[in-house]
Amino acid sequence: MIDPSAVVRARWAVATVFFLNGVQLGSWAPQVPLVKTRLGLSEVELAMALLVMAIGAAVNQIADAQSLMGPIMILMIVPYIATPMVGNAPDSAFAVTTSFLPPINGFIMMARLASTSPPPGASQPSFCARTTR
Fold first, then answer.
1. Is 24 contained in some domain?
2. What does the DSSP 8-state code read for residue 123?
3. Are residues 106 and 44 in contact, defined by beta-carbon separation less than 8 angstroms?
């Protein structure tokens, strides 16, 4: 038979661990913009770094991490494959649509801006569009 006091101690131990993890995450999350600024990361680079950190936290062996890196690598390879298509037709429906998808929009917008006919101001983010008075 399990001792009831041992069950109570185990519950308190688990609750304490969850509380401390919440405090740690709550104190780190507000620092993410500061880390982004200090390291000079773009939004895409920060997102990839956070995904890789999550994989590192979820595994305890390198083989497990390598198996989880497949989806992350696909997120990083797809924009490179799409860049020539976007560069050839920067105003196509494909280019405009992928410009609004968060995992790859940084790559796609750079390809659209570097093409011979950059995107019109309406499809650029508001911080890129010029305003005149």
1. yes
2. G
3. yes
